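Following up on my earlier thread - several people asked me to post the actual chain instead of describing it. Fair enough. Here it is, all 134 residues.
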Amino acid sequence: MLLQAAFSEGRYQTMIGSSGTYNVPSGFYIDWYLISGGTSQDWLMNNPDNRMDGGLPVAFVSYAQANPDGLHHNYHNSPNEIVWEDTPGGGDLDYDDLVVPFNFGGITPNTVVEEDEGNESQDNTARLRILTFL
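Reply from S.P.:
Thanks for posting it. Predicted structure:
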């Protein structure tokens, strides 16, 4: 299952309720997720198939197609803020269950990588700063 692969060891980073700065190397993707009714570890242990059987933690991600109910559970309220609805089926659709303000800092150049002779590309790292969860 694609969602399980995304949550495999070392492939995700959890940011809980506080600000922080995270490095995002080039070639990596950012996908926002929310676990409703538990923690990431609860979800992995008790509901890795992401069923909506009631009482089990459910994972919602940025892509509606990957959510068990097929709905969008987050959207960008502004260019630097993501808001969430944490209830299966959309709940009350108020999108105020979790508000995540963020910004991207500068790009830090790393090593120049030679792909083919005469073709070089820059390997960069972007900084993602999570402000304070609301």
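The mean pLDDT is 75. That should answer part of your original question.
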